[in-house]
Design goal:
The chain is of the alpha/beta class and about 350 residues long. A hairpin with a 4-residue loop joins β5 and β6. α9 crosses α10. Helix content is about 45%, strand content about 20%.
Length: about 350
Amino acid sequence: MRITEVKGVRIMRMPEAHAENFQWAQERIALSMEAVGKVIVGQSRMIKGLFMGLLAGGHVLLEGVPGLAKTLTVKSLAETLELSFKRIQFTPDLLPADLTGSLVYRPQTGEFVPRKGPVFTNVLLADEINRAPAKVQAALLEAMEERQVTIGETSFPLPDPFFVLATQNPIEHEGTYPLPEAELDRFLLKLHVPYPSSDEELAILRRIGKESNLAIPKTLQREDLAKLRKVVQDIHMDERIESYIVSLVQASRPIPHNHSPFHRYISYGASPRATLFLYRCAKIFAFFEKRSYVIPEDVKAVAPDVLRHRIVLSYEAESEDLTPDKVIETILETVPVP
């Protein structure tokens, strides 16, 4: 490998064979994003975030007001994949068995046999996930982290790959349950879905008014996904950027040796899971930018989406109307960049 330096960071140029795979991966992802873009106008950050979760093997939480095409985007992404897809509408009366399945008595044999629930799929859309009670959230925890579900006394592995793409409404709190911190930490990203711009909204009006049932081609197969992940894993990251990622996560924790003024606004910081996810997502962002190496700006670009749901603010921060994004912005400004 040939070693060069870009912006003070040492990078290794890919061998020719890896370069060919990198080019193939770029074309495949561009084709998939274009397919989703036939239905979804704008929302490029949300679309890239969903593909980031796909490549990193992590779950994604979408938060936005109703009507911003969160559910439609997830369904459109699923249509581009040669993978199974199921949707669950979370409600306050949902039971764990409605999600995971249950044991059913078979009178012919006198045995209880498992009936698998809708969680046994590749892509699971958990619509309005914060409307389900604690028992359902607890049942989902095992599926999200262990990639298995226990029915009765037997644990059943979930299909590979398995993604939870969840949506929640931030403005309506009647009949909702705040997601437990342990479950939030299992989401790779939390994406804020904004309103469209005036030009985008005009394009939505013209597209939806004239067309319906737009066909989305299948662009990614199961073997393609494994190959894409391998390409992303081969993206080079300098040791100094790895240390930078650790420093960012450490700076989010209100531990005794941290004396920065903003730490009084944090009750609990990000877990080591955030370190791993920042590492993976920075590589994928570099890949989206058509680079085979990571620079500090890649880490900065993904840090808000990776960290915002992992930082618990103090009462003092809430009294001053501070948000996790503002605290993350301060951390990014404070921690030295390599």
